[in-house]
Amino acid sequence: MKWSFDARIRRAAELALKYPAAGDLLTFYRELALFQKPIFEALRSTAETDVRALAPYFTPLIELVARHGPAHLADQGKARLHDPAAVEALLQSAWEDGAAHTLAADPYGRFFARVLLQPYAEYLASRGDVQASPENRTCPFCSSWPVAGVLRGEGDGAKRWLLCAVCSTEWVFRRVLCWNCGEEDKDRLPIYKAEEFASVRVDACDTCHIYLKSVDLTKDGHAVPMVDEIAAVALDIWAEEHGYSKLEPNLLGM
Asked: How far apart are CA 8 and CA 254, in angstroms?
């Protein structure tokens, strides 16, 4: 299932009111989604596939971040990506090598690349039928890592999908299996929940100490996984305080 930008924008506004502690994050995310939507629509209308076509959006993105985001983020963008050639090089490198993980050592580059690459990658993924192999560890379309799990009802239980951090493609992945190290012992794969976040949980591994948050649509059918995952930032803080590391940061680097 693809989550429209309109759905993300509405959900971010709803959750900002519901979870004031995450309000600033959700408001910033909403502004980013509002920025990404016309990029997606422009790519779809022109059938553009050259990643360099994203470069002109960089300056407006810097301006948006300066208005609505952390000041240091806009400053870093201006200082490090100050000319079209640098922007094109970042976009090409991130897309060719996999934006979700090859920029791990450069959080600023990762942020700007991912904001621009998400609508591009989602447009490309929407043009065909993406097929995944069983228990595929990376996205079957763009080879990026998952940012969250998605649980949907099936029979008497729920089935798990993984949600790509870049193109938002989903693929089925076994529930009792660690994405990172392949641990299959359910006693070493604890699940942590908080009453405040009924539909979001932490899926952890006590073997490799990696965790992934999953959004349970059987608990809240209105949830939009990439947004609800951000709203439950308190679970990230809890998990990290208890010795777990997040599998893949979300768009906001958390």
From this structure: 18
